[in-house]
């Protein structure tokens, strides 16, 4: 899966909009303070609640542009709403995300964060 994720991240980096997102120093400090496993658990929580449901009341507006490294990563990786998830990752709207899809989304978010952290 790493090859697929790396290829997707490289593709996303070519987007003028997606490539503008970067972790600020405060975000990096937060990741270092909390640890990568805690950030990953936050990603699972956010994705399960905000992206996985088949119907999202405020789809397209559910992910803030700042406030948590995972939110920034979601915008950078096209996993911020179901419309972007379909456009960039071909995961259709209107269906509950399964465990494999949730894992994929979290893995791409975490890979982006790792790149931003210099890992």
Give the rounded overall mean pLDDT: 95
* Anisotropy-based shape: globular
- Number of H/I helices: 6
Oligomeric nature of the chains: single chain
Number of strands: 0
Q: How many structural domains? A: 1
Strand content: under 5%
Radius of gyration based on Cα positions = 13 Å
Give the termini separation: 17 Å
Helix content: 55-70%
Structural class: mainly alpha
Uncertain spans, ≥5 residues at pLDDT below 50?
A: none
Q: What order do the SSEs take from the amino end to the carboxyl end, as H and E?
A: HHHHHH
Q: Mind summarizing the main beta sheet?
A: none
Report on this model:
- The protein is mainly alpha-helical.
- The chain is globular and about 35 Å long.
- The two termini are 17 Å apart.
- It has one domain (2-12, 25-117).
- The chain has helices at residues 2-13, 25-34, 36-50, 69-77, 82-89, 99-117.
- The protein has six helices and no strands.
- The model has no long low-confidence stretch (mean pLDDT 95).
Can you lay out the helices and strands and say which pair or pack?
Elements lengths: L1 H12 L11 H10 L1 H15 L18 H9 L4 H8 L9 H19 L2
Helix pairs in contact: 1-6, 3-6, 4-6
Key words describing this protein structure:
119 residues; mainly alpha; 0% strand
Short characterization:
The protein is an all-alpha fold. Helix content is 61%, strand content 0%.
């Amino acid at each position: 899966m790493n090859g697929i994720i790396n290829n997707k991240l490289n593709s996303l980096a070519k987007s003028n909009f997606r490539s503008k997102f970067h972790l600020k120093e405060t975000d990096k400090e937060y990741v270092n303070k909390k640890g990568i496993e805690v950030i990953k658990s936050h990603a699972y929580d956010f994705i399960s609640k905000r992206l996985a449901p088949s119907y999202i009341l405020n789809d397209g507006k559910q992910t803030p542009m700042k406030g948590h490294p995972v939110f920034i990563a979601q915008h950078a990786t096209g996993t911020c709403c179901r419309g972007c998830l379909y456009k960039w990752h071909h995961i259709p709207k209107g269906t509950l995300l399964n465990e494999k899809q949730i894992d994929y989304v979290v893995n791409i978010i975490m890979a982006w964060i790792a790149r931003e952290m210099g890992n």
